[in-house]
UniProtKB/TrEMBL annotation:
InterPro entries: Chl_synth (IPR006372), Prenyltransferase_related (IPR050475), UbiA_prenyltransferase (IPR000537), UbiA_sf (IPR044878)
Keyword terms, alphabetized: Cell membrane, Chlorophyll biosynthesis, Membrane, Transferase, Transmembrane, Transmembrane helix
Identification of the protein by name: Chlorophyll synthase
EC category name: transferase
EC number: 2.5.1.62
Example of a GO MF term: chlorophyll synthetase activity
Subcellular location: Membrane
GO CC annotations, alphabetized: membrane
Topology of the protein relative to the lipid bilayer: Multi-pass membrane protein
Lineage top rank: taxon: Bacteria
BP-aspect Gene Ontology terms: chlorophyll biosynthetic process
Transmembrane annotation, as ranges: 12-35, 41-59, 94-127, 156-179, 214-235, 241-258, 270-290
Length: 300
């Protein structure tokens, strides 16, 4: 006997957008705002628009796209999700993803040309991450890189571009790219929880390709090296105290990594919850270093 679909349920729309995932790009967007050196109060409207763009729209779109193209697997593994359960019936998952893509591009265009092209690039990666024939998520090298760029680099760039209404300074772009590269390692942490299932499904995450120990060592290096480069740049730019603060955060991460490396499968979630906050704190400290430069240079 076929189970009748419950029909479209509006509450399921928020669920399929996975609001918990919005924090990372919104935090990176805030770093972009801070690093621009521009006053916040006089830009509150574009900041609000940028927050909506980075979180609910672009990130939310990526989540809907992912759930749509994973609907067949979710029907087996997580049948209660909105799309396989029928709470978002038929092809409405695809329609919602397309509508949200259009809304994202429209808002990005209103916020400026550089914001628009950043949104185009981010949305293209969001679709390529989940959509055949690309399915970047099936390979940990490509998929984690795409997520790192979309969750850290592009929102940081967008936050600065919204404030300066132009191409952000090279130092801003450099830090955004470095922290986005390090986020590749953060994404690897999420892959330790399903090594056996990913192996059976042909999902070539880094723990599947390199083994748990190899992937854990790589993740730690990928997270640490960009921060070392950030520290060197902050020293080069004349910000020793900010550099020292990032050093302190990196030392704490290193100590936590020791436990993680002893048993990566068991401690990956633990490190993600305890160690990653120190990583993202360094992002904001670095952003304030650039803000100090902007203020000294005579920014309002």
């Amino acid at each position: 006997m076929q189970t009748k679909s419950p029909g479209f349920q509006p509450a399921a729309l928020l669920e399929v957008m996975h609001p918990v995932t919005w924090f990372a790009p919104m935090w990176a967007f805030a770093c972009g705002i801070v690093s621009s050196g521009q006053p916040v109060l006089s830009h509150w409207l574009v900041i609000l628009g940028g927050i909506v763009l980075a979180g609910p729209l672009v990130c939310g779109t990526s989540q809907v796209v992912n759930d749509w193209f994973d609907r067949h697997v979710d029907a087996i593994n997580e049948p209660d999700r909105p799309i396989p359960s029928g709470r978002i019936p038929g092809r409405w998952g695809l329609y919602i993803a397309l509508i949200m893509t259009g809304l994202s591009l429209a808002l990005a265009w209103a916020l400026g040309i550089w914001v628009f092209w950043a949104a185009v690039f981010g949305l293209a990666l969001a679709w390529a991450y989940s959509m055949p024939p690309f399915r970047l998520k099936l390979n940990g090298w490509w998929g984690n890189g795409a997520v790192g760029l979309c969750y850290e680099s592009l929102p940081w760039f967008t936050g600065a571009a919204v404030m300066v209404t132009a191409l952000p300074d090279g130092a801003i772009i450099a830090l955004a790219l470095l922290y986005g590269a390090g986020a590749h390692g953060i994404m690897t942490l999420n892959d330790f929880k399903a090594i056996e299932g990913d192996t059976q499904m042909g999902v070539r995450t880094l723990p599947v390709q390199l083994g748990a120990d190899g992937a854990a060592r790589l993740a730690c290096w990928v997270m640490a090296v960009p921060q070392v480069v950030v520290i060197a740049l902050l020293l080069l730019w004349g910000h020793p105290w900010y550099a020292l603060a990032v050093v302190g955060l990196l030392v704490v991460q290193g100590l936590l990594m020791i436990r993680f490396l002893r048993d990566p499968v068991r401690h990956a979630r633990w490190y993600s919850g305890l160690g990653v906050p120190f990583y993202v704190s360094g992002m904001m400290i670095s952003a304030f270093a650039l803000r100090a430069d902007a203020l000294l240079a005579g920014a309002p």
